[in-house]
Task: structure prediction
Amino acid sequence: MASGIRAQLDQSGASRSTGVLVGLAERLSDSIDRGVNHLLSLQMSEGYWMGELEADTTLESDYIFYLHVINKAHPERIAKLANYVRRRQLEDGGWNIYFGGPSELNATIKAYIALRLAGDAHGSDHLRRAARRVHELGGLESANSYTRLYLALVGAVGWDMVPSIPPELMLLPNWFAINIYEMSSWTRGIVIPLTILYAHKPRFNVPGEFAVDELYADPARKALGLSWDKELFSWRNLFLALDRGLKLYERVPWKPLRQRALRQAREWMFDHIERTEGLAAIYPAMMNAIFALVALGHSPDDPITAREIDEFARFEIEEGDTIRVSPCVSPVWDTAIAMVAVEEAGLLPDHPALVEAASWLLKHQISGPGDWMVKTPGVMPGGWAFEFRNDFYPDVDDTAFVLMALQRVDYPDKVRMESAVRCGLTWLLAMQNDDGGWGAFDHNNDRRFLCHIPFADHNAMIDPSTADVTARVVECLGRYGWPASHPVIEKAVKFLLKDQTEEGPWFGRWGVNYVYGTSGVLRALETVALTARDYCQRAVGWLREVQNSDGGFGESIASYYDPQLKGKGSSTASQTAWGLIGLLAASEVGDPAIARAVHHLVEQQQADGSWAENEFTGTGFPCVFYLKYHLYRDYFPLYALARYRNVATRITQFCGLMVRPREFDRQKA
Result:
């Protein structure tokens, strides 16, 4: 690689290139130092990091609806939520589901309903424009199943409009092709409370005469349910036929298994509310659980309902005259990545910030049983969840990142640390799927035909192996010394090769999108010394091709809808960092593309050591729900710049220009 640097300097524009590199060398250490100090300033007193997790206005819209249902619609609270929703209306009258995106039907319907509930006049200009945009997007008759169900709960649409979600699902055995443990963990948390609601079909009261007839594009379709495929034989049509049969079953007065099924659904929900901070610790599951508790006869003031309501209220973020709502919290995830970033930047292994963060993480390692044990019987727990407490749902991505973060910490209690790492690695290995990859929360959760069930339109019915999660585990194992020849790694690499696209990049399931997936895979394969292979070099070539003229990387969420847009978009801090990490993993450090990406990040850094980023670069459910992690713009660029400095320093001290990392003060910033 050293020869590669000199070759770059010897090319026809060498003086210009050298000038850029000299400038970078002079500014790089300062940029990294400011980035570290900024991150340290954000660390909580308990030792963890947690940035805001932002989503679209469907959360605030649903929250207004929810507060009316539980009779806690305090006027000032509703007004602040409505302000937040109202100010995000687009020029065409609709609302989108990601920054810069087009109007989306369900977001627009929900915003319209929420603002009506908040007291906005039916004939007001902004609501007329919203209704018109709903018609243009297909009307209420084209809304997804969850929008329909919430409207059915208040009598605004008939239950025939809602896909069947019978509680008898709970009675299907685990060996059967369709059962609750063949659904993803988040689907279980969302759907099982809905089975209770579907069985009881409550009629919750909301103020005034609540009707939505004006939102149908074709009033003749208001009594229709879901549309059929044009093909006669398809999974969708099969499940729609089953849905028709289940609706007939709902009209039968005698349902011999209903009460047993409801008991199991109720017991499952109550069991899973324990050892968590709200059911599944995610917004939709928690809201549905509260609705289900009310339907079961628990008032909002009953202890168990009140506890869920209090946990749910913690997602509120009040700022000025607005309230916005987070979909969940991400302290474990943010802490692990922040630790890896400052470690790469040169923070000493026994620095108090790292020791305190490690202590906090060790306290949050999961030691009890969870849903994942259904498919991995006999395997002891040892993973970490995403949130503060969500013991039923440790996840692979978090666990791998936590283990990488802990690896570099000089922790006083060596026995405690070794035990935690051993349990974590054992759990990770048990979660490897038969295809060689890893999913997020579940083992072998890949029955794709389930994605055609009518209530599966959240586009995340299953939790199969993905390249980004698989890459994280491979990187973790590689950093713990596992070689490419190990059977576990060999199986994982085979999965990754099968999942690679023809052009070279990998799809990003949990981050936007191909830049994210490709970066993670290349970094993983670097740790097991495979990046010289042709498949990695194709991926590097693709990264070079999609790099923007300003040196940055960007990719619009639109690439989830149109693969032709993969790698295309305005440069962002987090995506530039991912592109740079991928290039550093598999290209010569003197690659001009690397220098341009470094230069872009250094130039875009703000005075306080942070970076600005408006775009959403995180993914919840592709094509349905996206996220903006507010710390992505800080810890990923810091890690990328520090990695660049470390790689270059180790190889050649960058032709005498590189500055070695300084030792940071042991006192916390």
Q: What stands out?
A: The first helix runs from residue 2 to 10. The longest strand covers residues 625-629. The mean pLDDT is 92. The CA atoms of residues 474 and 661 lie 27 Å apart.
